[in-house]
């Protein structure tokens, strides 16, 4: 249902050519649904139900508005057409919605948050977590952005090609965040939220359709595919978290991995390298590793150093350090992490990596402290147990 | 919708009168105005005298204060404006890009508020 949110808003916004109206109408429909469905009377097709109710609400608002005479006729025509084609499943409206939310007249940070909210259907609390701010703060930001869209007259439209290229960086970032949210599932009990992962892949493919020659779009799709192909192998029979070395390769989606390799090759042929292509190449190397074998760490650390040149962020530096800890030594890796430690203070994977590298460097006390933080910040059950086990190993050796 | 394009700039950073660049800038303004007119967007547009001619008026309680100078002492000041009729913000931005001073200063685009019953 949450994933349908993006579809519903997009379709309503396309019907009425008004993003704010669509948002408000859906909000109303959701409140009505809460009331009506509370006693277990959920309709057979909740999405269709919500769409109908929201559409009626929106139409009421338009009827009441002063533009009564000018707008009604075209809306009626548009709606009759949609009625026949069940169009609320059609995807390209979501693309329009995404480009609207990523309009440069909005603050860059809120562009991403707003897209995660409207297109990705994420909860405000989840988005707040991703941005390391309070839920209330994020709610206020999103409200302000919705206001600006309405008051400033930001159109619900696909921009022209030049403008699309300008917005591409943000669009790709948003899609990757949607995927990551699905992959990490900040709030959920399970490691994966397949709905979000599939949504991210779907959106990325639509962007590629629109800009078929952008190597970074291909790079992003390949990156997501390489990662998504391993989804079934990430947790064991008891839902416990499994590191990649212990994955059952038979559970990997080899067809998806093949697709990703092909797409990445096609992207690389354009000789316009970018961060997504490099990250995809790294994931590709991981996917080429057999069970029990070590990945090609020297090449992976080389790719991370390329990525660092393209995009020097604390998180990239952390990943580079992990690769170096295997390719060279844990001690060298600890030296790479140290300067960015403060910036990663609230980043849970930092403690996971720090703990593991410290343990391999024989610094057991540091490792235990880091495991404690990693366990404390982990929102995912399976991972917690895995980390507890790892922590135990510090005492044994 | 109507949009006001407020043209801010630092006169020292703009082309000086008599130079080729100044001529190009003025030609740019003429071209912009012509485009607005031919596309039916032009509502109004003026250039303002320099900020040294500005007078500020404030009333606090019963006390009226008239002072020399602009509202805010900044390097970039308001030098002119266009009032344009546009479908949406994207159109307004497209028009704002035609204003030559965007190259030297900043063009701020603001939708004009409409009141119900207008």
Note the topology.
The complex is a heterodimer of chains A (397) and B (118).
Chain A: H1 2-16, H2 19-37, H3 46-64, H4 68-85, H5 92-101, H6 108-118, H7 124-130, H8 135-152, H9 161-184, H10 194-210, H11 215-228, H12 254-268, H13 275-287, H14 297-310, H15 314-327, H16 330-337, H17 348-360, H18 364-377, H19 381-396
Chain B: E1 2-9, H1 20-38, E2 42-47, E3 55-60, E4 63-68, E5 77-85, H2 89-96, E6 106-111
Antiparallel strand pairs in B: 1-5, 1-6, 2-5, 3-4
Summarize it.
The complex is a heterodimer of chains A (397) and B (118). Chain A is mostly helical. Chain A has helices spanning 2-16, 19-37, 46-64, 68-85, 92-101, 108-118, 124-130, 135-152, 161-184, 194-210, 215-228, 254-268, 275-287, 297-310, 314-327, 330-337, 348-360, 364-377, 381-396.
- Give the CATH architecture of chain B: 2-Layer Sandwich
What is the C-alpha radius of gyration of chain B, as a whole number of Å?
A: 16 Å
- Rounded to an integer in angstroms, the radius of gyration calculated over CA atoms of chain A is 23 Å
Q: Which strand order spans the largest sheet of chain B, edge to edge or round the barrel?
A: 2-5-1-6
* CA(first)-CA(last) distance of chain A: 48 Å
Q: How many β-strand runs of chain A?
A: 0
User: Which structural class best describes the helix and strand composition of chain B?
Assistant: alpha+beta
What is the N-to-C order of secondary-structure elements of chain A (H for helix, E for strand)?
HHHHHHHHHHHHHHHHHHH
Global morphology of chain B: flat
Low-confidence region ranges of chain A: 68-73, 81-90
| Percent of residues in helices of chain A | over 70%
Proportion of beta-strand residues of chain A = under 5%
Tell me, what is the CATH class of chain B?
Alpha Beta
Which range best describes the helical content of chain B: under 10%, 10-25%, 25-40%, 40-55%, 55-70% or over 70%? 10-25%
Could you say which structural class the secondary elements and strand pairing of chain A correspond to?
Answer: mainly alpha
Query: What series of H and E elements makes up the topology of chain B?
Result: EHEEEEHE
